[in-house]
Specification:
about 280 residues, alpha+beta, three-stranded antiparallel sheet, elongated
Length: about 280
């Protein structure tokens, strides 16, 4: 669940410890690792630990099909700029908001709204979009649309270990304390990276799982035997949510209008419409 986070932690540790550790790229990496020889010390290994999933779904309507908003960015294919481009989901008709991103990444970046039919067309049967208006040279396409599916949200927590190997107690304490300092003082940057810069999304056909993290905590440390020198396993825990989705492609559409039968009632009648 947290491999993107662990990869980022390793990169941050290597950068932060460069001034204190010789060759941090060779001494900080992914674990678990076999006990290193004395010549390889010190060594810092980051590895995933136990995963716990809350047994009850946060969303009590998780078995009911309903629309869900989805955002997708499309890079422009220089060879075939007009498409067609594959969509990650099958949009509900009339739900697509499409914007052309111009001068992306510059101070002049702006978004131009496109209109379905005159500027772009969607093949709903095959979940593809093609452009009538020229998009060559643009920085990208930003799409926001709704699709029908079944959703459930589960809280989870997962531990990870930072195992520190060193020649003596003083060195173990030094590297464990520095690693903990780097991780906890970079907490916000690490969570933002996981949630925004490297979002964890897994897909297989109509099924997908999207993960977000909300907290990163230090739990404690436990000494362990090592072949050469000493070892300390520092444990951390992250809290987050998994949004689990099953897309439903057929038989759903957005409600656009409600037509009155035209009959007049002798007394006012309250009508309650509950649309999700």
């Amino acid at each position: 669940m947290i491999q993107n986070l662990l990869a980022r932690i390793i990169a941050v540790l290597r950068q932060a410890l460069a001034g204190a550790m010789e060759d941090p790229a060779g001494h900080v990496g992914a674990g678990p690792v076999p006990d290193p020889a004395a010549a390889a010390l010190p060594l810092v290994a980051v590895s995933a630990g136990a995963l716990e999933i809350e047994p009850f779904a946060k969303d009590m309507a998780s078995s009911e099909p309903r629309p869900q908003e989805f955002v997708q960015e499309l890079p422009i294919d220089a060879a075939h700029p007009q498409g067609p481009y594959a969509l990650a989901k099958t949009p509900l008709k009339t739900s697509t908001l499409c914007k052309l991103v111009v001068d992306k990444g510059t101070a002049d970046e702006r978004q131009v709204l496109l209109t379905e039919g005159s500027d772009f067309q969607i093949d709903y049967q095959n979940a593809r979009i093609s452009f009538v208006r020229s998009v060559a040279g643009a920085g990208g396409i930003l799409l926001r649309y709704s699709f029908a599916g079944v959703f459930t949200v589960q809280d989870f927590s997962q531990e990870f270990q930072v195992s520190v190997y060193a020649a003596d107690y003083g060195a173990v304490e030094q590297w464990a304390a520095l690693a903990t300092s780097v991780i906890l003082t970079s907490r916000d940057e690490l969570l933002d990276y996981y949630n925004q810069a490297a979002p964890t999304v897994h897909s297989a056909g109509q099924f997908s799982s999207t993960h977000t993290l909300s907290q990163l905590q230090a739990v404690g440390g436990v000494p362990a035997p090592a072949t050469a020198g000493l070892r300390l396993d520092c444990t951390f825990r992250v809290l987050g949510q998994m949004k689990l989705t099953r897309e439903i492609g057929d038989g759903f559409a957005l409600l656009q209008r409600v037509r009155s039968p035209g009959r007049k009632s002798g007394a006012p009648v309250d009508i309650g419409v509950n649309v999700e």
